[in-house]
Structure formats: structure tokens, C-alpha cells
């Protein structure tokens, strides 16, 4: 498989990274206003008079969930599928010129996200009322709109299931077993994607659906709320994601590399470390962040989830835009280099995480509609968007 390396205009990783971050913040601010307003108009046009007549508060919640769904399905899930699972397979099949290659590949990803959503809703909606096309897009009254909101919430967080189930196949298992038994790029890409989708769907059924919907038989609950609350579940998930990303995002395969580099044992050890780390640090961070959460009126575990998600964003940013500064030339020791990078990520992420919780209301993709009335992503979605 051919490898393409992007040549950066600025050789200094700190300057290049800083300029990239500034550009991305501007693009995110403008982009969400455009994206959300366009999809809001489309959804209102599809919903017609039945949606327009909803209670204003319910309508606002309905539009937030539905517009958020377009972002989760067309951007987040497809990023995992195309870039991580498939290694950007076919991105440069038509041209190596940018931005043409990127625009073409993004368009293809958006299309796949729409098709994937359509398949998902079509089959689920046959017998599940909250996932029915009519309920999701043309609720006839407030009661059905509330059902649609639950349906949208569960469908939207299939993206979280994609992250939880499909990224570890790359970050921890290095696309095992396909990378071991095949050298064909398409086989490895399609095999990893297929296995990941199976695991994501299994996780969605077992974890995401009961987080939003209580199922009953003869009046008896047959499901329970995972982790006791959605805020706690989100907090645990963000910690789990942080720990399973470290080996691939600057960690150079550590810490499980201390024990073995043989797959799948290396992957399972990394998985165990991520699970254990999530359970260990959740109560610690909850105690530390409770005063901040109380000051802004949110649940402590929601503050933990947002705080850790910000650190994850910095981890990804430091790896992809700052080239894991300081690099091998500056710090030859692997231990010193990794610890330095991780220290930078945690300190910068912690500061930004606190600032985001306190000031998310000023951002167009967070909690500021600029008087335009566009749906906003809130504390978690806005954090993920940037």
C-alpha cells in the first residue's frame, strides 16, 4: 500500500500545530453555524406542519438531537470507519492533489454516513417505534416527539459505540487478526471494518439502548440503567477511551509493550489496563471536579466526562498536529519522551477542560446560538465537534 506524507509549510511543530489549532477553531465556529442551520431547515421542511406545531421547548430539543445526529453519523462514525479502520483506503485513488482528494473523500464519507443511517433506521424502524421513519422525522404530537427524541438519542450514540468498539481494534490490536494473516490492504481494511461494525452493534444493543430506553415485560423492567446514570456512563467511557488511545497516540505501544508485543495478548492487556484505569480514576476525578460542577449547575460525572474528553482532544491534537513534540531527536529516551508528551497533554488538557466547562456558552458549537436560533451541541457534543 502506498504511503502519502503531508508536507507542512512550517517545519517547527509548535508553530505548525498552533496555527492548525487556530484555523480549526475558526472553521469549527463557522462550520457548525452553517451545518446546523442547513440541516435544521432540511429537517423542518421534512417535518412540515406537524413538527412546526410542537411545543417550543420540545421542538428545540427535537431539533438539537436530530441535527446532532447528522454530525455523529456523517462525520464521527465515518471518520472511524474510513480513517482508522480502513486506513484511508482509496483516498488518493483519483488524485493526490489537495484539497481535491480531501473534498472527494469527505463527500464519500458523508454519503456513506447517510446510507448507513438509512439502513439502520429502515430495519430497526420496522418493529421499533422510536426508530420509525415517521416518528423520527414527522412526529404528530408532543408525546410522539418525546419518543422521537429518545430514538434520536439512542441512534446518535451509535457513534459512541463505534468509538468504544472499533477504535481499540486499531489502537490496541493493530487490526489483528487481519493484519497478521493478510498483506492485502483491502482485506485488512474491510475485515477490520466488518469485525468492528459487529462489535459496535453488539455494544449498542447491550449498552447504549438500555441507557435511553427501559424495556418491560408484563410491567416488569427487563433492562437496567448502565452505571446507574447516563452521566456516569459517559464519564466512564471517556476514561476508557483515553486509556485505550494512549498506546497509539504518542505512547509508542506502551504500557502493554512492557509485557508483550505479541497479538492478540498485547491487545487484551491494553484493554484490561483501559478498563481498570477507567474504574480507578472515575471516583478520583468526581471528587476533584464536584465543586466545579456545582458552580455551573451540572452533574459531577458530566463534568468528569467533559473534562476527560477535552484531554482526549488534546491527546489527539498533540499527536496529529504537534507531531508528538518533543520528538526522538530532542529526547532519545522513550520513557522520558512519552512522559514529557503525556505530561503536556494532561496539563494543557486539564486547563482547557476547566475553561470549556466554565465558558462553553460563548462558543457557537457549544451554547451560543448568536441570535440565529441554530441548534447547539452542548457540553459533550460541542467538545467532540472541535
Automatic annotation (TrEMBL):
<feature type="transmembrane region" description="Helical">
    <location>
        <begin position="297"/>
        <end position="318"/>
    </location>
</feature>
<feature type="transmembrane region" description="Helical">
    <location>
        <begin position="186"/>
        <end position="207"/>
    </location>
</feature>
<protein>
    <submittedName>
        <fullName>Uncharacterized protein</fullName>
    </submittedName>
</protein>
<feature type="transmembrane region" description="Helical">
    <location>
        <begin position="267"/>
        <end position="285"/>
    </location>
</feature>
<feature type="transmembrane region" description="Helical">
    <location>
        <begin position="70"/>
        <end position="87"/>
    </location>
</feature>
<feature type="transmembrane region" description="Helical">
    <location>
        <begin position="338"/>
        <end position="357"/>
    </location>
</feature>
<feature type="transmembrane region" description="Helical">
    <location>
        <begin position="108"/>
        <end position="128"/>
    </location>
</feature>
<keyword id="KW-0812">Transmembrane</keyword>
<feature type="transmembrane region" description="Helical">
    <location>
        <begin position="12"/>
        <end position="35"/>
    </location>
</feature>
<keyword id="KW-1133">Transmembrane helix</keyword>
<feature type="transmembrane region" description="Helical">
    <location>
        <begin position="154"/>
        <end position="174"/>
    </location>
</feature>
<keyword id="KW-0472">Membrane</keyword>
<feature type="transmembrane region" description="Helical">
    <location>
        <begin position="227"/>
        <end position="246"/>
    </location>
</feature>
Amino acid at each position: 500500500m502506498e504511503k502519502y506524507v503531508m508536507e507542512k509549510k512550517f517545519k517547527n511543530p509548535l508553530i505548525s500545530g498552533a496555527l492548525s489549532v487556530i484555523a480549526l477553531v475558526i472553521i469549527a465556529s463557522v462550520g457548525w453555524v452553517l451545518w446546523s442551520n442547513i440541516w435544521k431547515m432540511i429537517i423542518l421542511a421534512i417535518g412540515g406542519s406537524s413538527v412546526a406545531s410542537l411545543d417550543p421547548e420540545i421542538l428545540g430539543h427535537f431539533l438539537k438531537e436530530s441535527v446532532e445526529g447528522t454530525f455523529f453519523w456523517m462525520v464521527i462514525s465515518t471518520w472511524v470507519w474510513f480513517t482508522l479502520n480502513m486506513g484511508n483506503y482509496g483516498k488518493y485513488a483519483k488524485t493526490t492533489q489537495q484539497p481535491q482528494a480531501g473534498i472527494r473523500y469527505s463527500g464519500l464519507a458523508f454519503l456513506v454516513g447517510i446510507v448507513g443511517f438509512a439502513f439502520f433506521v429502515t430495519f430497526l424502524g420496522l418493529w421499533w417505534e422510536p426508530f420509525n421513519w415517521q416518528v423520527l422525522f414527522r412526529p404528530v404530537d408532543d408525546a410522539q416527539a418525546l419518543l422521537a427524541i429518545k430514538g434520536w438519542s439512542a441512534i446518535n450514540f451509535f457513534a459512541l459505540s463505534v468509538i468504544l468498539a472499533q477504535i481499540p481494534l486499531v489502537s490496541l490490536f493493530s487490526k489483528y487478526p487481519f493484519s497478521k494473516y493478510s498483506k492485502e490492504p483491502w482485506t485488512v481494511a474491510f475485515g477490520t471494518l466488518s469485525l468492528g461494525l459487529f462489535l459496535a452493534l453488539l455494544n449498542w444493543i447491550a449498552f447504549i439502548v438500555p441507557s435511553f430506553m427501559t424495556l418491560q415485560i408484563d410491567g416488569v423492567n427487563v433492562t437496567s440503567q448502565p452505571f446507574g446514570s447516563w452521566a456516569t456512563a459517559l464519564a466512564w467511557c471517556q476514561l476508557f477511551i483515553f486509556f485505550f488511545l494512549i498506546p497509539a497516540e504518542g505512547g509508542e505501544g506502551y504500557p502493554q509493550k512492557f509485557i508483550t508485543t505479541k497479538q492478540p495478548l498485547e491487545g487484551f492487556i491494553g484493554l484490561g489496563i483501559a478498563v481498570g484505569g477507567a474504574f480507578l480514576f472515575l471516583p478520583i476525578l468526581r471528587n476533584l471536579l464536584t465543586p466545579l460542577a456545582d458552580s455551573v449547575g451540572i452533574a459531577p460525572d458530566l463534568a468528569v466526562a467533559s473534562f476527560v474528553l477535552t484531554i482526549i482532544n488534546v491527546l489527539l491534537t498533540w499527536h496529529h498536529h504537534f507531531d508528538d513534540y518533543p520528538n526522538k531527536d530532542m529526547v532519545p529516551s522513550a520513557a522520558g519522551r512519552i512522559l514529557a508528551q503525556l505530561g503536556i497533554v494532561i496539563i494543557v488538557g486539564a486547563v482547557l477542560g476547566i475553561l470549556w466547562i466554565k465558558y462553553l456558552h460563548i462558543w457557537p458549537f457549544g451554547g451560543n446560538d448568536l441570535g440565529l436560533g441554530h441548534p447547539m451541541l452542548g457540553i459533550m457534543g460541542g467538545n467532540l465537534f472541535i
